[in-house]
Amino acid sequence: MSAPRIATALVSGLLFGFGLALSGMLDPERVLGFLDIAGAWDPSLAFVLGGAVGVSALAYALKARMAKPVLAPRFEVPTNRRIDGRLLGGAALFGVGWGLAGLCPGPALAGLVLGLPQIALFVAAMLGGMLIHGLTADRLPLQRRARG
Fold it and tell me: Which residue ranges run through the membrane (predicted)?
């Protein structure tokens, strides 16, 4: 990887982490308050999500005007538009995990700098789940059907 790509990745990661910290996304209690729509709902994170959707929409509009990215040979955009069991199961698992812990992968990784044991435990469990998936994915029927 070239030095400009590494520098861009570093700056992007720092900006992402700073944005998560500034917005309160590193605080599991605040996230759980946002998800608790039937109780003491905290709508403030809706603005964070709206901002993320807006930035993404601008990026896709910019992408449409570019032949290729500045620091890569081509755009890496998902092309699969099929809604299947793997997608729904993964989304459900992500949602349940987010609702139980108040963390998702990005904020959890950024939150490691806080030194909180619950965030470290979440990241360890997440990495363990990724390892288990990597070791067993070829044995799952849904994986074989999706690839085949």
Answer: 45-62, 83-103, 109-135
Q: What secondary structure letter does DSSP report for 128?
A: H
Q: How far is CA 12 from CA 8, 15, 53, 72, in A?
A: 6, 5, 17, 15
Q: Are 15 and 78 in contact (CB under 8 A)?
A: no
Nearest-angstrom CA–CA distance, 91 and 72: 29
Q: Dihedral through CA 104, CA 39, CA 37, CA 91, nearest 10?
A: 40
pTM, full prediction: 0.72
The 10s digit of each residue's pLDDT in 79-110 is: 888 999 888 998 998 999 888 888 989 899 99
Q: How many CA atoms lie within 13 A of 108 on its CB side?
A: 18
- The torsion defined by the Cα of 108, 113, 116 and 120, in degrees rounded to 10, comes to 50
For residue 30, give the nearest of 43, 14, 49 by alpha carbon.
Answer: 43
Ordered by start, the domain boundaries in the chain are 3-147
